[in-house]
User: Fold this.
Amino acid sequence: MFSTEFLDIPPLTEAAGTVRLPGSKSISNRVLLLAALASGTTTVHDLLDSDDTRVMLTALAQLGCRIEQGDGTLRITGLGGKLSTPQAKLFMGNAGTAMRPLTAALSLLGGDFELSGVPRMHERPIGDLVDALTQLGCHIDYLGNPGYPPLRIHPVTLQSLHLDAPIRVRGDVSSQFLTALLMALPLASYRDITIDVVGELISKPYIEITLNLLARFGIHVRREGWQRFTIPAGSQYQSPGEIHVEADASSASYFIALGAIASEGLRIEGVGAESIQGDIRFVEAAAQMGARIQSGPNWLQVSRGAWPLKAITLDCNHIPDAAMTLAVMALYADGPTTLTNIASWRVKETDRIDAMANELAKLGAKVEAGPDFIRVFPLPADGWRAASIKTYDDHRVAMCFSLAAFNPASIPVRVLDPHCVAKTFPDYFETLFSVVKPLSVPVICIDGPTASGKGTLAVEVAHELGYHYLDSGALYRVTGLAMRRAGLDADPAHETQIADLARTLPLRFDAGKAMLAGEDVTDAIRSEAAGMDASRVSALPAVRAALTELQISFRRLPGLVADGRDMGTVIFPDAPLKVFLTASAAQRAERRHKQLISKGISTTLDSLRSDLEARDLRDSSRSVAPLKPAEDARRLDNSTLSIEQSVDQVLNWWQQAQPFQAAPTKASP
Ligand SMILES: Nc1ncnc2c1ncn2[C@@H]1O[C@H](COP(=O)(O)OP(=O)(O)OP(=O)(O)O)[C@@H](O)[C@H]1O
Ligand SMILES: Nc1ccn([C@@H]2O[C@H](COP(=O)(O)O)[C@@H](O)[C@H]2O)c(=O)n1
Assistant:
């Protein structure tokens, strides 16, 4: 998961391969609540692990449910309709799928509860649900603005509820209000309970998911059209024992679009033709735009059909969440695309109509929007602009704008606060990067003499940008260690054997540790003697050649920061930023001295200084890939700079090389 301030997605060209999607958020949170209300233990397979499901699980644990994590499963022992904790303050984050159903269930369970969330949750309406519950005899107070969370729920007895008349609830703001009632009212079904929907019910497919899952838990709701629902008297929750969560059809929309835009065949696993989720009908919309799609019970195969995509006008009431993806696909269409009946976008994680309109416009698109529609005009190749996409703490905004990286102008896309995808798809960007081909992966090279601070600087810069990190010196150090263990010496007579060792090193980097054939050699390769051995083996041309491919393999999306001696001159000569980092020999010896002492390794300043000067001399005078600045390298002498100042300087240089207007927040030294 990326927790950086922003994520730059380089221009992308193609997609191919297979993705396995995480579990559906809608199904996961419904299953969790139903399992919590039921009697017995439910084993849940393929549950989504995300912010919203964690919010639900934390609340259920607070309410007294037993929750056990298994190997890829979660076991939840339900309350059997009876509270063991009659009082709690529950934090719902920004999870509508937790806030609404828990409000209804807790109102009937007879306890004293406070439900709150993040500031945006306190702007998301809940008044229609509270009205319906109040009509029923429940006692709920608003703790902030009337009609919005936070809420205080007071205890009532089931016998005091007015169940004789139909309960009326609005269906035209959020279908979650009806879902909440359908999931809570079986707790009070000592007689038939009827719910009447007022207004046109939106997002009907989500109600179908609710009814389907209720049936799995023993509640068979009678339905008359989409206006009246009856929970039969005597309904009782019963755990089905085992339940599988299918992959998220809304999350599939980004990969369906990816296939339509840029693939000769992208396979999506975990969701398919037999899905119970409404957003699976995104497949029809994508096909209308030109995607070629095949499907099986739980898989989809998508490739580009019509190109440019075909513009459409579509009533999106049945696919409110996935429809956002169409708004970005529209940039690649042959005319304006109009998405209608999307008023519910305005009360989601953010006002999604405004958010999409603003961000599409930043890319250069012409957009028209109204209370319940958005019209997006396609972008010609010369119309694309480099944009920093604001994501409004809305996972779907972040995910669908990643598709803009396929623009024909080959402009990168900056996604601000990429961490917001944690709500439903924490590894979204990693999954995307596993199937796309970039025009080029950006690399920042940091070369320089011993102990100049290359590693420290490179790790920090990589961390800030969410990039991978290559410590190329470690490869030579491990080769030196392997050479010693094989009883070889760093001289030309053993060159071929050492090169063979280097080519087949059973080396893995794991959480900053160097693992050689499963052994942690992190400390063993850090001594000055190991540095000297590294310097000697690195002067052997065959050894350098043997390690080249391995170093290049670190160049993966979204980018790489590589430190060493020849990163900019030999390994990544096309890197867009090369830094040659120096500091005075006295400073470097002093820093290394402190570093070794802090690790409990005793040494003297004088011996260190003469060792590092000897190493620098050998590294810069060898015949192959000598230590020297690349012609286009920027020089940075950090003798008088702090680590933070050096990092800021490199990030500023990097920002200057980007097409985005937004400057980094940190100042240069
Ligand atoms: N700008 C700086 N100011 C002060 N100390 C620094 C600075 N940069 C790095 N250091 C410190 O200097 C020591 C050596 O840094 P580091 O190990 O990153 O150097 P290096 O160039 O990667 O070394 P090597 O060539 O052995 O790989 C570390 O203890 C680090 O914290
Ligand atoms: N790209 C590189 C990186 C390192 N070396 C040699 O390895 C020695 C150890 O490197 P550290 O950065 O870990 O100190 C170094 O002295 C070089 O001789 C190299 O040749 N090329």
Remarks:
- The two ends are 30 Å apart (CA to CA).
- Residues 6-22+247-438 form a domain with the UDP-n-acetylglucosamine1-carboxyvinyl-transferase; Chain fold (CATH 3.65.10.10).
